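User: Sequence recovery, please. Input:
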């Protein structure tokens, strides 16, 4: 095999300039190692061979196997673990990938649970809470809630309640109800602190299960007239507390989902930092070089490539 390599190497050295119609220019120094090593490389540079620029290691020079810190970091920012694969840290790559998959599976699972629980408590509210009952209670007890007001001053039900007492509660004129609430809460220590948001909004479903002011809108609440000793108004409805727990459960599900989304984001960042560190370690620990030496044969001397790689742990 070596006998075939000798003429092949000579052809590589001589064929390039010959095919271009030029006389080969081989720089001989008298040192066989230098002549066989630098001659072909210098010739390749002078003849403009692809990838053979001055100072470029190419196939005759040094290859160090270094890793790009930017590539390692960006790969892991995009897909945790990808930068570790790039830096040959396969065990850590598996850990980051597993963390990413787990985080998103848990986040999506609990987000879906939160959505289902939200649908459940909203349906419960639509079935058992009514702004009509709440407004009627407020108007009927206005003399206690705020003695300075008169129920006749508020046209909350312009067309009467009729059969419009279920969602979406079109019997209620919301602007008048909010005006009534605003006037009532101007009187101290009656428990009225908020205006009822429009039906269907997120705030609507939050407030009716959060403040005792709205407790009389539940269908199990005692609608009897109140006295000044009943102020500030407190809830006497069990559905109010059941509903509050349902909402709290939905919020807990969303909190867990949000936590694992944060875990996924942190996983991207940590993976990127680790990939950059791993690439940096490879670059600082890897030392590689390649040189050509000559060996005596029965036909004379022949070039032989020698590669040396050292990795410091």
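Assistant: Recovered sequence (313 residues):
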């Amino acid at each position: 095999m070596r006998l075939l390599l000798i003429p092949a190497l000579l052809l590589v050295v001589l064929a390039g300039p010959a095919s271009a119609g030029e006389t080969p220019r081989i720089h001989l120094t008298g040192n066989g190692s230098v002549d066989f090593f630098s001659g072909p490389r210098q010739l390749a540079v002078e003849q403009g061979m692809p990838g053979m620029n001055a100072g470029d290691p190419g196939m005759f020079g040094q290859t160090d196997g270094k890793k790009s810190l930017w590539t390692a970091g960006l790969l892991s920012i995009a897909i945790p673990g990808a930068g570790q694969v790039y830096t040959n840290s396969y065990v850590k790559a598996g850990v980051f990938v597993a963390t990413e998959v787990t985080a998103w599976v848990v986040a999506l699972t609990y987000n879906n649970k939160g959505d289902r629980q939200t649908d459940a408590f909203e349906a419960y509210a639509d079935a058992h809470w009514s702004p009509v009952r709440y407004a009627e209670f407020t108007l009927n007890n206005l003399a206690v809630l705020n003695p300075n007001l008169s129920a006749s001053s508020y046209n909350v039900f312009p067309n009467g309640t009729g059969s419009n007492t279920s969602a979406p509660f079109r019997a209620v004129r919301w602007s008048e109800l909010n005006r009534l609430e605003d006037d009532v809460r101007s009187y101290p220590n009656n428990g009225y602190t908020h205006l009822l948001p429009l039906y269907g909004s997120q705030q609507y479903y939050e407030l009716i299960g959060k403040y005792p002011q709205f407790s009389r809108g539940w269908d199990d609440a005692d609608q009897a007239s109140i006295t000044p000793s009943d102020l500030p108004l407190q809830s006497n409805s069990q559905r109010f507390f059941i509903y509050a727990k349902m909402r709290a459960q939905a919020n807990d599900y969303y909190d867990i989902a949000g936590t694992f989304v944060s875990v996924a984001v942190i996983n991207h960042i940590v993976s990127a930092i680790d990939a950059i560190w791993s690439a940096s370690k490879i670059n600082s620990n890897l030392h590689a070089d390649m040189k050509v030496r000559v060996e005596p044969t029965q036909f004379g001397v022949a070039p032989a490539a020698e590669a040396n790689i050292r990795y410091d742990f």
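The chain has two domains: 2-67+285-311, 114-255.
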